[in-house]
Structures are given as structure tokens and as C-alpha cells.
């Protein structure tokens, strides 16, 4: 049997609270619950049960070679484009190069453990909205682009199992499998 899993950085509560406060007056938009906000480093669509222990061990090995990094949520955008958006996201500032190296190491470790990650290139972002259909979202991108959140030190990564449709409003439910510190 296989599970949908991902490795992510989770901004601390004060960072999520600041962004939630920024978005709150704009509640007419379908924002994702702040408890589910994360920065995906690697998404593995089908992790076989036999690979799970190796995946956690590989994650521990990778994070043992990486140090904490200072990050900040700043600006926003849309995937694939603002005029035909399916996803709205917040951008990142700070040690984005270090974040990219961490994502590469996590993805290589997952591959080595027998849990191949999805092949898309890493694009550092935090998803704040998933739209049910493609829509023109230029106005919302302009609003998100004005945001500059507090800095924080990212010092751990989390491995999650994703259970589709089991969360509130039919959204995914994310279950923490392991949390590993950056040293």
C-alpha cells in the first residue's frame, strides 16, 4: 500500500497569525486554513509502506547537514498565471538559496529511500488559496504582493501524510509522521 506524503517547513504560529490577520478583512476569498499552511520541499504521490522508515532516516541524515535559515513571507503570486489562476501563493525572502539546497537534498533523499518525489522544479512559496476552477486573479495577486511578514528562523522540517477529502470542507487532512530538526 502507498501513501501520499510531503516534506515541508511550517512557519511558526506568530508568522501564520500575522498573515491570517492580513487576509482576515478579505474573507470573501476562499483562503486555506492557516493550520494547513506550509512550504512544500518535496511531494511524494505514492510512498510505499516499505519505504517509510528509510524516508524518515534519509530526512534525518539530510537535516543533520543543514543549518537553520532565516525566512520571511513577502509578496505573492498565482499559478499558473494571475489572469488564469488555480492557486494563490505567498513568496519567500531571506535564505531562499539555502531553502532551495534543502529542497534538493530532501528530494534526493526521498528518491534514494524508494519514495520518488514529483518531478516539478522547486518553486519556494506558501499556498494560501486553491480555486475550484481557473479564474482571473490579478486583483488578488496585487493585494498579496503588498504583504511583508515577520522574519523567522526555520529550524525543522516535517514529514506529512496527506489524506485527500478528509479535512474540513473536503480539503486534505495532513497528519504529522515525523518532525526533524535542522542542526
From TrEMBL:
<feature type="short sequence motif" description="HXTX 2">
    <location>
        <begin position="125"/>
        <end position="128"/>
    </location>
</feature>
<feature type="active site" description="Proton acceptor">
    <location>
        <position position="125"/>
    </location>
</feature>
<comment type="similarity">
    <text>Belongs to the 2H phosphoesterase superfamily. ThpR family.</text>
</comment>
<dbReference type="InterPro" id="IPR004175">
    <property type="entry name" value="RNA_CPDase"/>
</dbReference>
<dbReference type="Pfam" id="PF13563">
    <property type="entry name" value="2_5_RNA_ligase2"/>
</dbReference>
<comment type="function">
    <text>Hydrolyzes RNA 2',3'-cyclic phosphodiester to an RNA 2'-phosphomonoester.</text>
</comment>
<feature type="active site" description="Proton donor">
    <location>
        <position position="38"/>
    </location>
</feature>
<dbReference type="GO" id="GO:0008664">
    <property type="term" value="F:RNA 2',3'-cyclic 3'-phosphodiesterase activity"/>
</dbReference>
<feature type="short sequence motif" description="HXTX 1">
    <location>
        <begin position="38"/>
        <end position="41"/>
    </location>
</feature>
<dbReference type="GO" id="GO:0004113">
    <property type="term" value="F:2',3'-cyclic-nucleotide 3'-phosphodiesterase activity"/>
</dbReference>
<protein>
    <recommendedName>
        <fullName>RNA 2',3'-cyclic phosphodiesterase</fullName>
        <ecNumber>3.1.4.58</ecNumber>
    </recommendedName>
</protein>
<dbReference type="InterPro" id="IPR009097">
    <property type="entry name" value="Cyclic_Pdiesterase"/>
</dbReference>
<keyword id="KW-0378">Hydrolase</keyword>
